TrEMBL record:
Protein name from the UniProt record: Sugar transferase
Main location: Golgi
Keywords: Acyltransferase, Glycosyltransferase, Golgi apparatus, Manganese, Membrane, Metal-binding, Repeat, Signal-anchor, Transferase, Transmembrane, Transmembrane helix
Membrane topology reported for the UniProt record: Single-pass type II membrane protein
Organism: Campylobacter concisus
Length: 539
């Protein structure tokens, strides 16, 4: 979808809400003044009154400053005579301005915009004005470090960190605690969706709103749009950053300081739908962001008081504690050598009577809630120095055996743009590696990509598997090729040229084959002695 001539239509009014943070307000205004078309835009500034004696002087300083600014077509200042609070002030101000002008751009006093921000929001408001399912547009983005993503995209998630909307969409806004109570008491599936696939706890935010612990307009707006199945347009890179995480803001506790803005201008997507891949990418980023910010607070405190040796000891103890917490996900009579390195225990499931040999590395790349991204079945032997790096899923079924130095790589570094260092582009998370029942991989086999190795198959040493292998096959080479298959009509392994494909109907299903092996070999003797020099300290 092409950009349109911004001079051919009326620009949306900018509405800025300020309170008592002079330095933040100055940065916000100065960045806005540098925007293209700022001098052709009407600016409305809502200045809330002080809620206590301590804030009066700071509010007065902000009001003195905003009376001195210029650089806009018209500037209208609304000074509240009593303290509205952020939520009431925004709801009141947005309602009045959007009803008068038909559209609106909304900012708060801790948002720094790029010079392209106004142009992008105005064009988006014009392009999607007749698309009823588009409820808002924003200059914020979660995907700065993701190169392999559309220039702009839609999510079923609103943003309060800069936004624009239209009068007919805002008319559906409702501030009713009964709606919040309804989502709180809804099904697990509904709450998971509202929590954006369990990536941020909006349900708890709704509870805090009901309990009076926060005063948020944004949770009501998000719920309104959520109930309408509405969309918000996001740019691939941030056109706005939040500087409010210094403790001075009303609700500033979510994240760390934002990265610097880049010189970026998005094109507009024609696909007016939330794509699953975009939702998965953003929800994964949100999960990591929330988790990291809590971790980092703890780490930063510990760094001040611990020596390097103490930090190393603490890291070991923390790893052991994590393992004990997730011991329920490790089967009975399973041996994991003490040299095995694991990241992401809560996203790993290992069956009964399985041995994982020394110096194996098991790494969960993207952790989506409590989903299991690496699953290793029962009666399995994982050879020494194996390497597992998951995308969406690596599933190793029962009776699996691997030789030394095998690798399973379910994620790739994104390489769309060669002018960005590949180490900095992030990784894909969509791929699944499925290894069916009773598969044997020789030493040094590499399994890469989105594929299935069929049940009963054997892969020769040193092979590269980068595509599906059919059931009951022998494959070798780099990339590997099937050279033999088990012919159920002949009852023997035969060369691929001799194989009778008419006998494919005789091949047992995965379930049939697995059940047969479990019936005849419920517990095989796993060579735990080959897993390591010493008995592991975990099990």
């Amino acid at each position: 979808m092409q950009q349109i001539d911004i001079k051919s239509y009326n620009l949306a009014p900018i509405v800025l809400f300020v309170y008592n943070r002079l330095d933040h307000t100055k940065q916000t205004i100065e960045a806005l003044q540098k925007n293209k078309f700022a001098n052709k835009s009407d600016l409305f500034i809502y200045s809330d009154a002080a809620k206590n004696e301590e804030s009066k002087q700071k509010v007065a300083e902000v009001r003195e400053y905003i009376k001195s600014i210029n650089g806009f077509k018209n500037i209208t200042i609304i000074e509240r005579e009593k303290n509205y609070g952020l939520a009431n002030s925004i709801i009141d101000g947005v309602t009045k301005i959007v009803n008068e002008y038909g559209k609106i751009i909304v900012l708060e006093d801790d948002l720094i915009t790029s010079p392209n921000f106004l142009k992008f929001i105005n064009e988006a408001l014009e392009i999607y004005k007749n698309e009823g399912k588009v409820y808002s547009v924003t200059g914020y983005s979660f995907t700065d470090n993701i190169s392999d993503i559309e220039s702009s995209y839609f999510l079923k998630l609103t943003s309060s960190w800069s936004w624009g909307t239209w009068a007919d969409r805002w008319q559906k806004f409702k501030r009713d605690k009964k709606d919040l109570e309804q989502i709180i008491s809804s099904s697990i599936q509904e709450k998971n969706l509202f929590n954006f696939d369990d990536s941020y706890d909006y349900v708890s935010m709704a509870k805090m709103q009901i309990d009076g612990k926060i005063d948020s307009w944004a949770i009501y707006w998000y719920l309104c749009v959520f109930k309408q199945n509405g969309l918000t347009l996001y740019p691939a890179k941030k056109l706005v950053k939040n500087i409010g995480f210094d403790g001075s803001g009303t609700h500033c506790s979510f994240s760390e300081y934002e990265d610097e803005l880049v010189n970026f201008y998005p094109s507009f997507t024609k696909d007016i739908v939330e794509k699953t891949i975009n939702r998965n990418v953003v929800s994964s980023i949100l999960r990591e962001k929330n988790k990291i910010s809590i971790k980092r607070k703890i780490i930063n405190k510990l760094k001040k008081h611990l020596s390097q040796k103490q930090k190393q000891i603490l890291l070991i103890l923390f790893s052991k504690a994590q393992l004990l917490f997730h011991k329920k996900d490790i089967g009975k009579n399973t041996y994991i050598d003490k040299t095995v390195h694991v990241t992401g225990w809560k996203n790993i499931l290992i069956g009964n009577n399985t041995g994982i040999s020394e110096y194996t590395w098991i790494n969960v790349n993207k952790r989506l809630g409590d989903n299991k991204h690496i699953i290793i079945g029962s009666n399995c032997y994982i050879g020494r120095r194996n390497f597992f790096s998951s995308g969406l899923l690596i599933k190793v079924s029962d009776y699996f055996m691997s030789g030394i130095d095998c690798k399973f790589m379910g994620s790739d570094h994104i390489f769309k743009n060669p002018f960005i260092p590949y180490i900095a582009t992030g990784t894909t998370i969509e791929k699944k590696i499925i290894i069916e029942t009773n598969v044997w991989l020789g030493a040094g086999v590499s399994v890469i990509g989105n594929l299935t190795i069929g049940r009963g198959s054997i892969v020769g040493a040193g092979s590269l598997v980068n595509k599906d292998i059919p059931p009951f096959s022998i494959a070798v080479g780099s990339p590997c090729k099937v050279i033999k298959r088990y012919d159920f009509g002949a009852g023997k392994w035969v060369g691929i040229d001799e194989y009778d494909f008419n006998n494919d109907s005789l091949i047992p299903t995965e379930e049939e084959y697995a059940n047969k092996l479990k019936q005849n070999f419920p517990n095989v003797i796993i060579p735990f002695v080959a897993c390591g020099k010493n008995k592991g300290d975990l099990f």
